[in-house]
Write a structure and sequence with these properties.
Length: 294
């Protein structure tokens, strides 16, 4: 039986549903959306080798109620709350972003829908691996790779940690997880994190500018400009657009009658938004999802 453990009252403006469906993360395991489209189940790693299954329920964007499948002590409850605040980006300041959106007729809908927060995983590691799984493939394959990792490596209980992947055989990742060409990149990334050659904590709490962080992350094999730009968005750095084939196609359909548009022209359109340019790019290309369905 689910046990109520805590509730969070987000500061307005906040939309639970706009955050939940801001991009595809809620469709990737170990996230699991309830049939009501407002209940989110997730596996949280709250301490080394300690996993908690939580159920997150929204009440009219004013209260997030949290349930667990087990009794938790106060320290564990506080960690769960901290991670859920992280997932929904409740401590990130979007005031400037909303101010800009309010002054732009094409983006006033963002303020009305309280949109802009991009759901993220409980750890930078999970976000990075999932971004890797979106490169050069269909969304169906992305979901399959992530599901295989959760089911075949972690037996369906959680998203596998670097140490769990670092010991695997590349052939297993290629054939069983269906990682294809990404397999050696994932394996090397896991081994480097495990051996402290990649400091994810430093990146998660980066004190330098976005350009410096971008250059650091680009050193990782397998993470190109699109991938690193997308990871930066999940860290709260929106300077880079993260243009991929879908973005080029969608932009061309919206603004150029379907004719191919070069990346320089796309960047030029959003340049005036400065440090928020990447977020305005994403919101612009996904606005139909918000306006028509949310």
């Amino acid at each position: 039986m689910d046990k109520f453990i805590a509730e969070i009252r987000p500061d307005p403006p906040f939309s639970y549903k706009s955050t939940l469906f801001a991009h595809g993360w809620a469709d990737l395991e170990p996230f699991r959306i309830g049939q009501d489209l407002r209940t989110l189940n997730y596996s949280l790693l709250i301490a080394p080798q300690k996993i908690v299954q939580v159920k997150i329920i929204d009440e009219s964007d004013t209260t997030i109620r949290i349930f667990s499948d087990e009794d938790l002590g106060q320290t564990d409850i506080e960690r769960v709350v901290e991670l859920i605040r992280h997932i929904f980006r409740l401590d990130e300041n979007f005031a400037e972003f909303y101010h800009i959106a309010e002054t732009e007729p094409a983006f006033k809908w963002i303020v009305e829908k309280k949109a802009g927060r991009l759901l993220r995983a409980g750890s930078l590691w999970e976000d990075m691996v999932k971004i890797l799984c979106t490169t050069n493939c269909s969304w169906h394959l992305t979901k399959l790779m992530v599901s295989n990792m959760v089911q075949k490596i972690a037996q369906g209980t959680h998203f596998p940690e670097p140490a769990e992947i670092a010991v695997l055989d590349e052939n297993f990742l290629r054939k069983e997880v269906k990682m294809g060409y990404r397999a050696p990149f994932l394996l090397e990334m896991a081994q480097n994190v495990k051996n402290n050659l990649i400091d994810l904590k430093q990146w998660a709490h980066w004190v330098g500018n976005s350009e410096e962080l971008f250059k650091e992350m680009r050193k990782i094999k397998g993470l190109g400009e699109y991938a690193v730009s997308s990871i930066l968005k999940l860290l709260g750095h929106y300077d880079y657009l993260g243009i991929d084939s879908w973005g080029r196609r969608t932009f061309a359909e919206r603004y150029n009658q379907g004719k191919r548009t070069d990346d320089r022209s796309i960047r030029s359109k959003y340049k005036k938004y400065g440090k928020w340019s990447g977020l305005f790019f994403w919101m612009d290309l996904t606005q139909d999802l918000y306006i028509n369905k949310k």
